[in-house]
């Protein structure tokens, strides 16, 4: 086989693997992460597949993806008692922070609607089945696709590289689109998001509430969006350095809450810990105390661990040494300290479980299933439903690891198997060594361009 055919085969494998990847080596953030995806076994009923819809005319208002294509969403109409209720889910998927990472991103589904899936599975809080999603199954459920690289908050462009940073405009045009389709008359509305989308749901929470008149019940949910300004294992601040690039290069500063920027620098105001106490709209924070993405990409990235002392620990928490676990326990303590002021509000909610996980609301196994994670005997779906509908106050904070045996911990293992089974309480993520090597090589080629 000649070199050209090898390259073509490599690109095909690369594209297939990218469907499972939502976060990877963005500049100094090192590890390829399969944290927001999982395979559904044949035994699990097939989820609802919802088609992609482009927001026609959005470009005339400056609302475009990184590459200039139209933004898009998936919408499943509400029915029955939920016909006049709306749930907006902001998609996650990391960020870009400079020319190199944004140029790469605009050739993926995270930067261009050209590469987005034509249909998307609705599971977890997006499911249309009462047995999978008891409180929101018959609402209008929308997933707004993420293609701006800055948690729907950027504003500007890089003319030299033909890139558009229009996250704020995408947010505005999308909300206008949904209001025109009936959301302006909603009796109930919930803005949610996972990962970078969870950060976006915090940034836009009060804006979302301001769309409605007083008769609409409006709340927000952030899943795995509590990214901390934490020290990494080398004593540096990998995520702060990365966020500084996101905020400055993509023009986020002008869209950050003035309640924060008037007394803190813009980069600090991209960290949720400095925003949540000032949000007026009721907000629920769903987060793993040992967020798997933050462990891999923020606390122990390759750049902060040149001798690979954390490689085994960050792939499988059971392989952490006593000193490494002590470091992770300090991270949990920092997370709990960051929500102290936020938790004082009676209208806010918390579900902080001591798991090594990331994004628990979109996945069916962690949202609502027979063996879902629970706190105070309630799975995530019931806890959030109780909070939203004011059935009960929900301020659930788990005891420290290893006390919780209901977790679906993410464990990464090199094997020759391509399957991704769920074994006991852990989600075992396997990937073929050859395919992973190919992916790593291709990523390295991209990152040196």
TrEMBL record:
InterPro entries: PAE/NOTUM (IPR004963). Residues 1-23 form the signal peptide. Keywords: Cell wall, Cell wall biogenesis/degradation, Hydrolase, Secreted, Signal. GO terms for molecular function: pectin acetylesterase activity. One of its GO terms (cellular component) is plant-type cell wall. Its EC number is 3.1.1.-. The keyword Transmembrane helix does not apply. GO terms for biological process: cell wall organization. It is found in: Secreted, Cell wall. It holds the Pfam family PAE. The keyword GTP-binding does not apply. Belongs to the pectinacetylesterase family. PANTHER family: NOTUM-RELATED (PTHR21562), PECTIN ACETYLESTERASE 12 (PTHR21562:SF5). Hydrolyzes acetyl esters in homogalacturonan regions of pectin. In type I primary cell wall, galacturonic acid residues of pectin can be acetylated at the O-2 and O-3 positions. Decreasing the degree of acetylation of pectin gels in vitro alters their physical properties. This is Pectin acetylesterase. The lineage of its organism: Eukaryota, Viridiplantae, Streptophyta, Embryophyta, Tracheophyta.
